[in-house]
Amino acid sequence: MDPGAERTQSNGHTKVAARDVNVYYGEKHALKTVDLDIRINEVTALIGPSGCGKSTFLRCINRMNDLIDGAKVTGSIVLDRQDIYDRNLDVVQLRARVGMVFQKPNPFPKSIFDNVAYGPRIHGLANTAGEIEEIVVTSLKRAGLFEEVKDRLEEPGTGLSGGQQQRLCIARAIAVSPEVILMDEPCSALDPIATAKVEELIDELRENFTIVIVTHSMQQAARVSQRTAFFHLGELIEVGDTESIFTNPSHKLTQGYITGRFG
Amino acid sequence: MPFITLLATLLALSAILYQLGKGRALRLSGGRPGVLHSLPTYYGSYVALWCALPAFLLVAVWIIIEPMALQALVLNSLPETVRQLPLARLSLITNEMRQLAASGDYRFASSPEARAAAEHYRDLHQIGFAAMAVLVLTAGIFGGRFALGRIRPALRARNRVEQAILFFLFVSSTLAIFTTIGIVLSLLFESLRFFSMVPVSDFLFGLSWSPQMAMRTDQVGSSGAFGAVPLFAGTLLISLIAMVVAVPTGLLSAIYMAEYANPRFRAVAKPLIEVLAGIPTVVYGFFAVVTVAPFLRDLGNQLHFSVSSESALATGIVMGVMIIPFISSLSDDVICDVPDALRHGAYGLGATRSETIRQVVLPAALPGIVGGILLAVSRAIGETMIVVMAAGLSAHLTANPFASVTTVTVQVVTLLVGDQEFDSPKTLSAFALGLVLFVVTLALNVVALKVVRKYRERYE
Question: Which residues of B touch A92 (CB under 8 A)?
């Protein structure tokens, strides 16, 4: 039994509700009528073979698809009773509430300190240098990176190792105090030790954040998530408690994928 | 047989030997290609190279030695009185001789002796050429036969041919290096001659530039002053004005093109900006003289202050316009090279577009942009045609952009245009100026390339 299960504060309350979501990249119908609820203070894993639409769905939640030419999203995604595709919604504020960690660590070419301070600065979350420093230190601590970098906060973030860079990116994301953190295969560029650290971190972050993670590793989904959604060819095939998805999938496709028969 | 026929014959000979070599290799393999060490074409090339290389080498040697040898022979046949003449007269005579011989028309010979000498020269030249042609063709044939005889299945023809090719590549690349060294040396030696007449410190730190030298001893007022500071100052002033025009315009246009412009606008605007780079600098020059300078002068008159019609401002502005595409297209490339991952990282944190550009994209692109600007500065400093046409000639030491200043390049041009005596400091000072210019632009280029390279290492 996952030791984190006791700590789960989830009461099944829905944080993000997606209804009838379709995504088109030009002519390509990348995501087909997806309905999915993301529960608060849980880790939801999105799994499925390459090109199944799981990353596309993830990027819908903070409207990163807006940046792709020719991408069109229909349907509704509601974050705490607010439709994020509402015309009046400011996408900048949305992304402050829904942070993102990318597949490849992408620290800015700035110092470690400035990388973490970037979000709080642009959103005016702190008024004094002392407050900024406090946010930076807290975020680095929560990302489990502080001890390793406390003596070289002024060195460039690009000089860290891959795993440290990814934890720096996580610290950068949580410094803005988002409600939801999206992670797009955050460990795919990391070695097993760094992966283990990041997974441990994800489990701790669950206490304060709602996390959605896309992963190609089924072991990872099983290790870190409470709920798992399986996508195939742009459709959401099955969603449920991680344990039941992996032990007792109700759909033949899900079973085939998790037992490694395709994908 | 003219020279070109000889070369064509040699090439044809190599081609024939290539086929022979290839055929021989094929015969030796007896239809089993695996027996040969290399592909049959390599055996062909091997033979052809053995034919062509020694032959062409002989031709090259002949081209270098022949004029010297001929001249010595002909001069020796001339009467003793002629040979005693001073060197300058002697070279005049040999020149006449050579021209008569080349034209084949002896009617204009200055004397019967000259005519005789020219005919002698011509005969020698023809005999020499015939001998050389025979020698070269023999060398080609023997080289080819030798190589044909060496063809065995075990012969490593590919390795040999590739070695020869490697040698050609090496020679080509060193050629450029040696040219550079040659240019530097020629500048250096003339400059040293200048510095033996004018002290380096006077040249580098002197405040007065007036290179007119007295031609006669009784002439007054033209003692020559070679303080180059006013020229450096003028060059810097004009370059500075050019950069003030070009850097903001080029950089902002690059940011717009790379980050905001839609693809349709970009497809039209980018080539149009780059057209600016294709305009000959002479055209910029008369744009400055005919349009910009009079406009600024009239504007100054209306505002009641005096603007020289050769003002540094007009020249600098036009030079800046010339440099805009340089900066904009270099910066545009650099900005586009910033990985999208960084942009997405910033957007993902809720940064707006302008925050992303100002705080993430531009800092990431900065080293490349700085490198581009440094390259542009070195272009501005070395730019000649615009300043020759639009800037002044007299050297004033001033920082006033409305006054007329002169630049290093302008002075080099005026010092060397027309008939010059190459032993006066006036003419030689041009080389010293050229050397300074060369050193400065070289340093700027080296720094710029270093900066750009440092940037490249970060993202690849």
Answer: 350-352
